[in-house]
Amino acid sequence: MKAFVDRDGCIGCQACAGTCPEVFSMDDDNISVPIKEDIPEEVLDSAKDARDGCPVSVISIK
């Protein structure tokens, strides 16, 4: 599974990076950037928590 962020809708609150830093980080413009590789199985639940906790619902996991 991979994480995706709608960068146009990201408000830079950093909740995803705080919830799952193994999958999400913030770029120089303070926009969320997911890792490009598959989400490691051991952090998948945390990545889903980050998706579910996004206040603007711009994260998807497929």
From TrEMBL:
The keyword Transmembrane helix does not apply. It holds the Pfam family Fer4_13. InterPro entries: 3Fe4S_ferredoxin, 4Fe4S_Fe-S-bd, 4Fe4S_Fe_S_CS, Fe-S_cluster_ET. This is Ferredoxin. PANTHER family: FERREDOXIN (PTHR36923:SF3). Residues 1-29 form the 4Fe-4S ferredoxin-type domain. Ferredoxins are iron-sulfur proteins that transfer electrons in a wide variety of metabolic reactions. Keywords: Electron transport, Iron, Iron-sulfur, Metal-binding, Transport. PROSITE patterns: 4FE4S_FER_1, 4FE4S_FER_2. SUPFAM superfamilies: 4Fe-4S ferredoxins. One of its GO terms (molecular function) is iron ion binding.
